Amino acid sequence: HEAKVAKAFMRLFLPNGYDMSSEDAGIKSRVLEAGLEAEQNLVACLSSHNMKAKAVGTVVKALKKLDARGELNEHIITYQRLQANNRIVDPSPRATIHELQPTSHSK
Between the CA atoms of 59, 65, 67 and 68, what dihedral angle is there, to the nearest 10 degrees? Predict the structure, then answer.
C-alpha cells in the first residue's frame, strides 16, 4: 500500500503530465525521466517546508501531513486538470491507482 501511495504523490510532481503508454521503444527512458523529474520536484517541495525526508516511508509520512493541511491542493488540482485535458497517459488499471483529492483544510 505504501508504494501505491508514494506513486500517487509522485504523480502530483509532474506538472506537465506524462505518457506511460507502451506503444513505442522509448517507454523505459520516459519512465526514468518522469521519475527523476518527480523526485526533484518532490524534494524541492519538501525542502520548501523544511522537511528533509529521504526514505520512502518518511517521504510518504511527510507528504500525508502536507496533504492533510491542504498544502498539496494546488498539485492535486493541477494533476486533475492534466487528466481532464489528456496530458496524462497512463495505461494502469484504475483500480491500481491511488487517487488523491483536495482537502478542505487550507494553509
Answer: 160
42-100 pLDDT per residue, tens? 999 999 999 998 899 999 999 999 999 999 999 999 999 999 999 999 888 888 888 99
Residue 55's nearest CA partner among 45, 43, 66 is: 43
Residue among 69, 15, 71 at smallest CA distance from 40: 15
In the chain, domain spans: 2-96
Beta-carbon contacts of residue 87 (< 8 Å; ≥ 6 apart): 16, 17
Instruction: List Cβ neighbours of 86 (8 Å cut-off, separation of 6 or more).
Output: none
